[in-house]
Amino acid sequence: MPRKGYRKPDAESRRDVLRVYLTPAERAHIEACVERLEGTTLADYARRRILSYPVPKPQSADHAALIRALQKLGTNLNQLARSVNSGHTIEPTGFQATIDTLHALLKKATIGR
């Protein structure tokens, strides 16, 4: 993450705007392509296509489900840690169950490559 007050040099900052007119079908097609690419914005996708930069490949449904499961698990683990740091006591089984699930998901993620 850039330090506070950091600005990109003028040569790297995106200030110029390109307006493109599309038919509703063209817009729907582009939005469908972007939707399959999690974490990609419409502008980023269009920029990559126009400038012939590589576009990330769509993730499989299994991969996307695995990512969501890991995110939920991370949230759960964070809540447990926050609770402990606030002085609450938690049964070790709560942590262990979360950690065991995390190990299983990570194993699935690395084997599935």
Return residue spans where pLDDT drops below 50 for at least 5 consecutive residues: none
Distance between the termini: 28 Å
Count of individual domains:
2
Largest sheet: none
Q: Which band does the percent of strand residues land in?
A: under 5%
Chain oligomer state: single chain
Order of helices and strands: HHHH
Radius of gyration: 21 Å
Number of strands: 0
Overall pLDDT metric = 84
Helix and strand content put the structural class at mainly alpha
What does this structure look like?
With 113 residues, the chain is mainly alpha-helical. It has two domains: 43 residues, no CATH class; 51 residues. It contains four helices and no strands. Helix 3 runs antiparallel to helix 4. It starts with 23 loop residues before the first helix and ends with a helix. The mean pLDDT is 84. It comes from Hyphomonas adhaerens. This is Plasmid mobilization relaxosome protein MobC. Pfam families: NikA-like.
